[in-house]
Design a protein that fits this description.
With about 270 residues, this protein is of the alpha+beta class. It is built from 13 helices and 7 strands. β6 and β7 form a beta hairpin.
Length: about 270
Amino acid sequence: MRNESTGRRDQILDVIVRSYIETAEPVGSRVISRRHGLGLSPASIRNVMADLEEEGLLAQPHTSAGRVPTDRGYRYWVDSLMEPEELSAKDRDWVVKELAQARTIEALAEKVSKVISELTETAALLYIKNLKRVSFLHHLLEELVEAERLGDFFEEEPELFIEGAFRIFDQPEFQDARKIRLLLRAFDEKGDLLEILVKDLELEGIHVHIGRENRQEPLENVSLVVKDCYWGDTAVGGVAAVGPTRMRYPKVMSVVSFVADSLTEAMRRF
């Protein structure tokens, strides 16, 4: 009985998250009952929604409104319920083609930011340690790699590129002036964003930071999807997408992962 109850709970949470990502509108029990064929009455769905709210996975913006996912709800969905989305062959080919056109590290950085922002409809970040030194002293970099002293080469201040910030402010969540000011401050000062990206260098794979998990007020209304890029076996930076917590996680994670891997491959040319 417990497994059946848990399955029903997860099913309803999945429907609510996917619906809210798509519409940006709170999701009510009648909508779920009519449109998603779960075989449950609105009353039964409301009971499950109340349980999910009690667990902190859903919130009710207004007394008479439906529910929306919380940061904790998104986290559970991303970790346990989300279905991965494979990047289409067309998009993969476009990414590879765009990156192949770059003749300098700086141009490559611009291409990476462009493809992430356009494919995900979010802001794109690219963080690489000492980008200018990599660009102008790539011959020295090869010597350092051979001497296993690559870390010495990347001791100066990192550089952070931001592309497509305007895309976030088109979202309904960012019609509030205070939220806009906070996020613009984060983009301008860059320190909060760099702190997350630098810390992620310590771990391999793709990382998802959701809302208040970021623990920095300017970033409490956004999610970041981050993956490292490498020079040889050394992580030298990362690419990221920044958008509202109501982002299309399966698509964004697929794009960021593929672009980061493509950047690692493309950097071998320099």
